[in-house]
């Protein structure tokens, strides 16, 4: 276990905000977590993963907790459906790489997403037509209210687009994910419908999970910044869902990209709206709307402050609101 005071969080958030916390604790096992005297720690408590979906807006006055539980256990490789128990501190992408190499299906479209397994289960990360809930069967947590271990089935997690029970008011912060139970398949089930994947596969017939993974990585690299080179937190905004009437106002001829949901409402790519406002490349201080994918805000100078990011966020929200009457909601969690 590692305990630090007045700790610099620059390397614990992919936006690379230079902020600090009063106390930082990284534990290696569930027993270490259970043994912590939570009452004695500076408050509030904040549990983070890789910090790839966070924006620290200032120094954090409390304790930041981080899991380094990094075990991957294949429960039984003998069946078509393979259960796997994965520690919350495992890098999500190294897990995906490993299961693809074992020839297991289900995770390959989620290749290249920064972050750790625990946070992936809280955030219900998704890409290229797959959400992590599709391969999760259960989530094991430590309940800091009752101070005991608790397991939730996938239904109890109330997963929706970038949402789960763990993000809801009342439960937020109560459950610390210690491991996630996945169920992957030996039976080939490639999902190649998302625009660009088939093309990136360059006509490979009957691709393996690793070949699909490589196509996804290629597609991501063409649009999204690599967080190890350029600070960002992936998509900064969620894709808004609007009514049919609103969509007709946004796009009278219906030519805007859109996706009709089951209830008749319409999801419009925020990237399209931001692009149409001419905001690609827009800057506030060291922060910039990413040229290749305007849904992303990047720390272009490497020294952008939280205020730079917040100012740019507001500029984007206000401009899109004025032009289209749609209020974008941030996807990145503000701390
Ligand atoms: N578009 C433009 N101009 C641009 C870029 C895109 O008009 O410069 C339009 C295009 O019509 C494009 C559409 O926006 O078809 C949508 O873009 P894309 O399919 O690349 O993805 P997205 O909807 O913007 C979502 C997720 C990503 C995920 C991709 C791929 C959200 C908020 N974002 O983005 O997730 O990788 O789909 O599945 O749902 C993340 O959450 O951090 C993330 C990167």
Description:
The protein has 335 residues and is of the alpha+beta class. The two termini are 24 Å apart. It folds into three domains: 2-67, Uridine Diphospho-n-acetylenolpyruvylglucosamine Reductase, domain 2, CATH 3.30.43; 72-185, 2-Layer Sandwich (Uridine Diphospho-n-acetylenolpyruvylglucosamine Reductase, domain 3); 231-334, UDP-N-acetylenolpyruvoylglucosamine reductase, C-terminal domain (Uridine Diphospho-n-acetylenolpyruvylglucosamine Reductase, domain 1), CATH 3.90.78. The model has no long low-confidence stretch (mean pLDDT 96). The protein has eight helices and 20 strands. The site of uridine-diphosphate-2(N-acetylglucosaminyl) butyric acid (EPU) has 17 residues, from strand 13 and helix 7. Uridine-diphosphate-2(N-acetylglucosaminyl) butyric acid binds at residues 127-128, 223-224, 234-235, 238-239, 257, 269, 271-272, 275, 293-295, 331.
Mean pLDDT over the full residue set: 96
- Number of distinct beta strands: 20
**Which strand order spans the largest sheet, edge to edge or round the barrel?**
6-7-12-10-11
Helix and strand succession? Answer: EEHEEEEEHHEEEEEHHEEHEEHEEEHE
Q: What small ligands are held by the chains?
A: uridine-diphosphate-2(N-acetylglucosaminyl) butyric acid
**Whole-number tally of structural domains:** 3
CATH topology assignment of the largest domain: Uridine Diphospho-n-acetylenolpyruvylglucosamine Reductase, domain 3
Specify the CATH architecture of the largest domain.
2-Layer Sandwich
Beta content: 25-35%
Distance between the termini: 24 Å
CATH class of the largest domain: Alpha Beta
Unreliable parts: none
Major β-sheet annotation: 5 strands, antiparallel
Question: Which bin fits the share of residues in helices?
Answer: 10-25%
What structural category do the secondary elements indicate? alpha+beta
């Amino acid at each position: 276990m590692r305990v630090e005071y007045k700790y610099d969080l620059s390397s614990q958030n992919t936006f690379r905000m230079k902020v600090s916390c009063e106390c930082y604790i990284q534990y290696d096992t569930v027993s270490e977590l259970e043994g912590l005297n939570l009452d004695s720690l500076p408050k509030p408590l904040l549990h983070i993963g890789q910090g790839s979906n966070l924006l620290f807006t200032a120094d954090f006055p409390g304790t930041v907790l981080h899991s380094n539980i990094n075990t991957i256990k294949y429960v039984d490789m003998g069946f078509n459906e393979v259960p796997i128990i994965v520690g919350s501190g495992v890098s999500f992408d190294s897990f995906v790489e490993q299961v693809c190499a074992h020839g297991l299906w289900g995770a390959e479209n989620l290749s290249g997403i920064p972050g750790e397994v625990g946070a992936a289960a809280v955030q219900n990360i998704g890409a290229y037509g797959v959400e992590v809930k599709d391969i999760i069967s259960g989530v094991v947590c430590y309940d800091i209210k009752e101070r005991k271990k608790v397991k939730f089935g996938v239904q109890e997690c109330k997963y929706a687009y970038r949402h789960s029970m763990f993000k809801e008011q009342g439960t937020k912060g109560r459950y610390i994910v210690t491991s996630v139970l996945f169920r992957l398949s030996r039976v080939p089930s490639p999902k190649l419908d998302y625009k660009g994947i088939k093309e990136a596969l360059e006509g490979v017939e009957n691709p393996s999970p690793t070949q699909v993974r490589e196509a996804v990585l290629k597609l991501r690299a063409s649009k999204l910044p690599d967080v190890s080179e350029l600070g960002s937190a992936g998509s900064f905004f969620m894709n808004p869902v609007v009514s049919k009437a609103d969509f007709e106002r946004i796009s009278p001829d219906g030519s805007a990209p859109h996706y009709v949901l089951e209830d008749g409402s319409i999801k419009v790519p925020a990237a399209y709206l931001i692009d149409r406002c001419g905001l690609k490349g827009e800057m506030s201080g060291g922060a910039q709307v990413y040229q290749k994918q305007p849904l992303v805000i990047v720390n272009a100078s490497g020294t952008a402050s939280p205020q730079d990011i917040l100012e740019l966020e507001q500029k984007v929200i206000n401009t899109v609101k004025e032009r289209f009457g749609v209020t974008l909601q941030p996807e990145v969690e503000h701390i």
